[in-house]
Amino acid sequence: MKLTLRVWRQKNAEAPGAMATYEVDGISQDMSFLEMLDTLNEELILAGDEPVAFDHDCREGICGACSLVINGDAHGPERTTTCQLHMRSFDDGDTIDIEPWRASAFPVVKDLVVDRSSFDRIIQAGGYISAPTGTAPDAHATPVPKPDADSAFEHAECIGCGACVAACPNGSAMLFTSAKVNHLNVLPQGAPERETRVLDMVAAMDEEGFGGCTLTGECATACPKGIPLPSITAMNKEWLRANRKVRR
């Protein structure tokens, strides 16, 4: 395959950025999208040019590090992570636009790399269990109803990639925050801090400058792990309940 790549290049957060055009040839349909970018970078290095900076780690669709907007879609045309997107999803001769996540809370570090530490600060605001639990209990020591366990596992699948923010027209982080809140609040281990957790994490989300949620649903559509949109509704109910309790 021969492709034309229009790639966002930006030296640092303060420097202006622009799209740069590159031609790549000999791309196999079996390559992953990141392997295709590796090929581009090899050619740039051999030509004495600076390679394109992009995030990656496990390349197995687990860590959420790969974060690209491809032809206007977070992670590309398939509902998967960028590292699991293969070039068979494109045609020979295609022009592909590659950009970083676009959100004020995700400032560009360089080229396609953005700073997603705002997600870390949301989790730090209340995403942990601070009550002493001693040594690891037996698996059956605290019974958990199956619907609650299923819900916790469903929300725990969130890998924090940020596709929900990139896809949202408002740059909202509600789907990510709701996944982290609901994951812990639905379990008995999270009950002692249930109210403070949701209040603190939502407050941290707002402080980071993420946009408001208008339930357009683009976040759930782009999520590679299928976190459902009702997760936001569940978190909103948790927040209202906790807010009323605090006001009393």
Describe the protein in words.
It is a single chain. The protein has 248 residues and is of the alpha+beta class. It is built from eight helices and seven strands. It has helices spanning 33-46, 117-124, 146-156, 163-167, 174-185, 194-207, 218-222, 230-247; strands at residues 3-9, 18-24, 69-70, 73-74, 95-99, 108-110, 113-114. A five-stranded mixed beta sheet has the order 2-1-5-3-4. The chain has a two-stranded antiparallel sheet with strand order 6-7. Helix 2 (117-124) packs antiparallel against helix 6 (194-207), helix 3 (146-156) packs antiparallel against helix 5 (174-185) and helix 5 runs antiparallel to helix 6.
List how many beta strands DSSP finds.
7
- Give average pLDDT, whole number: 93
**Spatial gap, N to C terminus:** 65 Å
**Beta-strand percent range:** 5-15%
Secondary-structure content class: alpha+beta
Q: What is the count of helical runs?
A: 8
- What is the helix content? 25-40%
Major pleated sheet: 5 strands, mixed
What is the ordering of alpha helices and beta strands? EEHEEEEEHHHHHHH
Shape designation = elongated
Radius of gyration of CA atoms, rounded to a whole number: 20 Å
Quick rundown:
This protein has 248 residues and is α+β, with helices and mostly antiparallel strands. It has helices at residues 33-46, 117-124, 146-156, 163-167, 174-185, 194-207, 218-222, 230-247; strands at residues 3-9, 18-24, 69-70, 73-74, 95-99, 108-110, 113-114. The model has no long low-confidence stretch (mean pLDDT 93).
